[in-house]
Amino acid sequence: MHYPWWYVPYLTSPMLIALIATIHIFTSLYAVGGGIVLAGEVSYAYKVNNTSLLDYLRSHTFFFILLTVVFGAITGVGIWWIIGLSSPLATESLIHVFVFGWAMEYVCFLLEITSAFIFFYYWGKLDPKTHKTIGWIYAVSAYLSLVLITGITAFQLDIGNWTPEKGMWSAFFNPQTFPQIVARSGASLLMASLYIYLHAAFKLKRDINLRALVETRTATWSMVGAVLVTIGGAWWYYDLPASSKAAMAGASALNILTALVFVASAIVFFMLYFGPHRNPGWINPGFAILYFVIGIAATSTGEFIREGVRKPYIIYNYVVGNNVLISEIPKLQATGYLNGGVWTKAFVRAHYPQVFDSEGNIENAKLLQLPENDQLALGKVLFQYHCNDCHSERGFSGVSEYTRGWSESMINTVVTHLDKAHYFMPPWCGSQEEAMLLTKFLEHISLSSPAGMKFSGEITQPKPDLTQMRIGGDAK
Amino acid sequence: MNPQNLIAPSSPLGNPAPFWFITFFKVLGFTLHMIPMNIWYAGMLLIAIFATFGKNHAKELAHRLSGSMPIIIAIGVNLGIIPLLFTQVGYYQFYYPAGVLIAWPWLSVIFFLIFAYYGVYVYSLSVRNNKETKFALVSAWVSSILFIVIGFLFANNFSLMVNVNEWTKIFSGTNVAGAVTGQALNTSDPTLFPRWLMMFGIAMMTTSVYIAIDAMYFKKASTSAEYKTWAGKFAFGFFTAGMVWFAVMGSWYIFGEIDKYTLAQLHGDPIMHAVFLLTAISPGLVWIAMFLQRNGVKKSSTIMAVCGQLAVLTLNAVSRQWVQNTELMRYRDLSKEAVNMQWSPMVIFLVLFVVGLGVIAWMISKVMAVEKNVASTQNQ
Fold first, then answer.
1. Statement: residue A458 has pLDDT above 70
2. What is the domain count for chain A?
3. For residue A462, is it within any domain?
4. Is A458 a domain residue?
5. Cα B62 to the center of its chain, rounded Å
């Protein structure tokens, strides 16, 4: 609304955030957990003077750098890119609250990059004490970056007592920060272990003893991770705002997925205990791949749930899903969404100057006096800006599917009572006339009820194809 | 469509710091980012050319540059975060719409960067393992081309940011029911090409200075006197070419394409007039330092060139920032935005920044001590 909306057909542009963020989290968790595990294991290897373990850890560090410094770092920058494109108002708000938090994270990144390269390239050249210290500098700075970014994403889910006057710390220490830090700390250790299993299963295929040692030691880290994920997850659920709990209660898919994540964490814990911890040498390449895929699936699911329960907000009680500030909604309802939006107003002015009054505002009553096709066109504009954040026309979360068989009055009731019909949707942010325009557009694109379904003895028929009827001329 | 009406309202949150602070860190961050970015921008092309066609010392230069390139890129990408961060804080009303209007090309920067970076690693590892395959050469070429394309896309976004008139044209031509498809580029902007090409000239100059540093200070034990002579000569020639390129493209921009409003403001501001003059002539001072080592790199000349080039980059960043602020002034005075000062986060950031630099300095001192030991052992 404040910014032009980016139309991505079939998918919706915010889905690109999900795509890039999910890919990023696989490596970013490894970047944190891997740093801790590597620093810990290198310290151990020096302590017991195990040179073959040190050699293995060196080769793993190179794999670690290749993945985290390149792919992890650039997909992290990619999140910056995509949130600015798909959610500019929310990004603008977040950055005004947390700019110094992100600046602190940048210092952590600088430390991470410098220490990671020195840790690897000066392996065997630095004395053990300095080498270990640099490893721990990496681990601490990477962990601090996790803490900082988690506070920011947790703020999106629950702003707590924050008000704009209270500044960053009030926003950072919100009710969700610590539960999410605990859960993500665990996830980072768990993911790091899975990467190590994967790497060691191939790299140490023939060195069974060393592989067994790596497995046993890594299992301890990963079991700690599994426990932290479970504790953090439960704490996260306990401290969820009521809207998120309601969103979970109302969406059976989210319930099932949450249960799966908890069950998977428990299974992983026991598998780690009875597997690599008690029976070293257990993990072969095939099993390591399977383990890794399960880890990726569980992580993606966890992130999906975390994002899913935030609806209808991008920032809880501050910015709703369709990039509107909560404080703007009453005015938009009174004077119109098209009138209130910078780019929607410019569009209407360019195409329908006749609906403007002498003071340069859109007269909502005039909208319904436009020819039917123009009303549909403006209905589509409203759809793009008000709905396309979550819904496509036909494709991902397609409204033409959701409104199958709905009558115009049903659609209008839902449009004008969006937040009542579904509490995980934002309220209608426009005038009644605009609601009618959107209704007409949705009715226009809605599909008929699936054919052949039987209720009360009547079998549903598909909607007649109006286009064909016009072409064929046999509408009668 | 009045372009003035396309600018988003101010954030009710207010800026977390005064506008001068935001601008200062933006300029500082951009100056720091330009150093490594320049080296990969021109340096990767040099690697690709010398790796394919070069012999003896030229090939050696490609190998030396490729060894440090992965680290240079990692540091450069990181140093790019700060200017981007402060651009989003202080210039959001212009930065976001420009990005959305060219969303797909702008997003492609990320994918290009991933491929370019891995391409650099492929070539660098092939040199390290003494296996310079065709695939590695192709990777070097692909990376160098991708970096130049990325530069073009950056020039697109940052020129579009200040060219609000162009927003209306792109919006009218690329929207589906008022939502933009994000498939446009800012190619009809006459300032785009000189802006893009000018940076390549600066990159050539910075890379030349880096070649001198590399020959003078890095891999001392394996650096022959002949290579040092060749490197001094080549760096001088490359710098001269870069300086001429910069002068031509800069003249094209300043005397041909920059808008009259900005030029009039410049003429009315004696301080900025002097800064612009210094920006134009500063490469000449570095050129003298490079000239002095045309028969072989010398410590004193290299240090002089480094200091000079830092001044060139700083002056460039300051001039660019002034131009950006002046161009945006036609639409909105961003320095008048409300400020909701965040003192304690700012102080903690500054403290962390200083502590972080201290820790980095400590780590580098350890590395230098190791290098010194290695060099003295090899000399014995």
1. no
2. 2
3. no
4. no
5. 21
